[in-house]
Design a protein that fits this description.
globular, mainly alpha, about 325 residues
């Protein structure tokens, strides 16, 4: 099947597979080179695992791993018909997001006025993680463009389904995201009002005076848990991405928040859910004996489902701005 092309005047990054793959190749070479230099000179450039000195093993492994991704990018350029390469490229996207996970969670630093005794920001590590997130974006473009080229579909729209179908699917994704966060918001709000299911300890569950500011404790004592408020805002974000009224809001901030939230919460929630299941089975001790294991599974594990649903909603919101092109 001959790949479709766009009519004149409809440019898009995804229309240029060579550009996307070349950008991914350059990024991988630069990131791998930085890791190699960090391995030779000691932890540097923010590559040190968890911002701690870990010797050179982690940096050397990162150099080898991302050097391998450069080889994959070279293959994307020279093997446009090999469909398995785009699948491998999506794995690189996941790898980059893992490396940049800290940057995806960095907006929580904006809540400094509600916390205390937090470690200082490692700006080198944050910059490195941000570069990794940029790599995920470039590799995502490369994977998408290569897949469309290999399948012979439209390089601009991918031959996607009509917009009304996407809107219906997006609505479902938004409702799933809201349902996934509701148990967490309800539980934390109940705790703030003194109703403590799943908590057998003393004091304020979820509001440690050692880390929560005086303002945060005051709000908590008046029934307002700031993390529950953030969960409600997350629900509103999912609805804004999937409901008609959300189309009147600025599009780029919604997309940025949606992708950042999906990338951060999907793996984080999966980790907490697995932790809860293992604790429930008695296989591990998470160090929170006053929290019932179901709290991790039902409340915190919902972050993973929310992240996946939010990613789906964000993708469909992004696609809804485009109709299938004239060649489809």
């Amino acid at each position: 099947m001959t790949p479709k092309t766009l009519p004149a005047g409809r440019p898009s990054w995804a229309d240029r597979p060579s550009w996307a793959a070349h950008a991914a190749l350059l990024w991988s070479l630069l990131y791998a080179t930085g890791a190699a230099l960090a391995a030779l000179t000691g932890p540097a450039f923010g590559y040190a695992l968890l911002a701690k000195g870990t010797g050179t093993a982690a940096e050397a492994a990162a150099a080898a791993l991302y050097g391998t991704t450069a080889v994959l990018a070279y293959a994307l350029i020279h093997r446009p018909d090999a469909r398995w390469l785009s699948t491998a490229a999506w794995a690189v996207v996941a790898l980059c997001l893992t490396s940049g996970f800290g940057a995806l969670l960095s907006p929580v630093h904006l809540l400094f006025f509600l916390s205390r005794n937090q470690p200082p920001i490692d700006w080198a590590a944050l910059a490195n993680q941000s570069v990794a997130v940029l790599g995920a974006v470039l590799w995502g473009y490369a994977a998408l463009a290569h897949r469309r080229r290999a399948r012979g579909t439209c390089l601009h729209c991918g031959g996607r389904a009509p917009v009304p179908a996407a809107q219906a699917s997006g609505t479902r994704a938004g409702l799933v995201a809201v349902a996934a966060l509701f148990p967490y918001a309800a539980l934390k709000t109940a705790w703030a009002f003194g109703i403590t299911p799943g908590f057998t300890g003393t004091g304020r569950p979820g509001a440690d005076p050692k880390y929560t500011s005086d303002l945060g404790l005051w709000l908590y004592d008046h029934g307002v848990d700031i993390t529950a408020v953030l969960a409600v805002l997350g629900m509103l974000l999912a609805l804004a991405l999937t409901r008609p009224w959300g189309r009147r809001l600025p599009r780029l901030p919604l997309l940025a928040l949606g992708w950042a939230g999906a990338g951060a919460l999907a793996p984080f929630g999966a980790f907490l859910a697995v932790t809860g299941v293992l604790a429930w089975a008695g296989a591990i001790n998470p160090g929170l004996a006053d929290h019932a294991p179901w709290v991790f599974v039902v409340a915190y594990g919902g972050f993973s489902c929310y992240g996946l649903a939010l990613g789906r909603a964000t993708l469909l919101h992004q696609r809804s701005a485009f109709k299938t092109c004239d060649r489809c």
